[in-house]
Write a structure and sequence with these properties.
globular; alpha/beta; Nucleotide-diphossugar_trans; transferase activity; two-stranded antiparallel ribbon; seven-stranded mixed beta sheet; Spore Coat Polysaccharide Biosynthesis Protein SpsA, Chain A; 192 residues; binds guanosine-5'-triphosphate
């Protein structure tokens, strides 16, 4: 199974440099990669569309980069999910794990839980839910590619596609979160 770290957003609330914000003696994205790596066969990074301001810095991580096609770029996190799914499909994978670049404390058994839930229920999308929803800590079957393509195409005129809106149209299942802190995300600069 491949894990895709979603790092293709603008990161406006963090001044555009979200993945490389210092965190726990490291950076946010390094922490996410550290958490995800032992759980998957390989980690890929979604760097948004070619020419994203951070693409050079992201390429220095030494992991395969997945770029968004101009046709579905900058429509929100699902732009990156579609790019990852197409790359996974090209690699003959049946599914893809995603994690956002701003969740440095992901659970060590996140992927195991997602895979077990998919095996048990056959859901095309599995994600976590606790006090909040964590739709990007998820497993996506490549079967959702056609629907996601159409949804992104349709959302172009609206400037973006809401993850929640898309999930409402799909066969999803949620896993209950017991440790909410593991899904803490960092969106603002630490000014302390
Ligand atoms: N490829 C791609 N990824 C995105 C896009 N928007 C957000 N993401 C990624 O999706 C995840 C959640 O993003 P958000 O926190 O909603 O947005 P952000 O760009 O990181 O931050 P803000 O600009 O401050 O909202 C992050 O890992 C982002 O890198 C997009 O338009 N394209």
């Amino acid at each position: 199974m491949i894990g895709l770290v979603l790092a293709g957003g603008a990161g406006v609330r963090m001044g555009g440099n979200k993945p490389f914000q210092p965190h726990g003696g490291s950076t946010l994205i390094d922490r996410v990669i550290e958490r995800l790596s032992p759980q998957v066969d390989g980690v890929w990074i979604n760097a948004g569309a070619a020419g994203h301001p951070l693409s050079d810095a992201l390429s220095e991580l030494g992991l395969p980069l997945v770029y968004d096609d101009a046709d579905w770029a900058a429509l929100g996190p699902l732009s990156g999910v579609l790019s990852g799914l197409l790359a996974a499909q090209a690699a003959n994978a049946e599914a893809l794990i995603t994690a956002p670049c701003d969740m440095p404390n992901l659970p060590p058994d996140m992927v195991a839980q997602l895979v077990a839930a998919r095996r048990k229920t056959g859901a095309e999308i599995v994600h976590f839910r606790g006090e909040r929803d964590y739709p990007l800590c998820a497993l996506w079957s490549v079967e959702v590619v056609p629907a996601l393509r159409i949804a992104l195409q349709t959302a172009k005129s609206q400037g973006g596609l809401s993850v929640f809106r898309f999930l409402q149209t799909q066969k999803t299942m949620t896993i209950s979160v017991t440790d909410e802190l593991a899904f803490l995300n960092v969106n603002y600069l630490d000014k302390s």
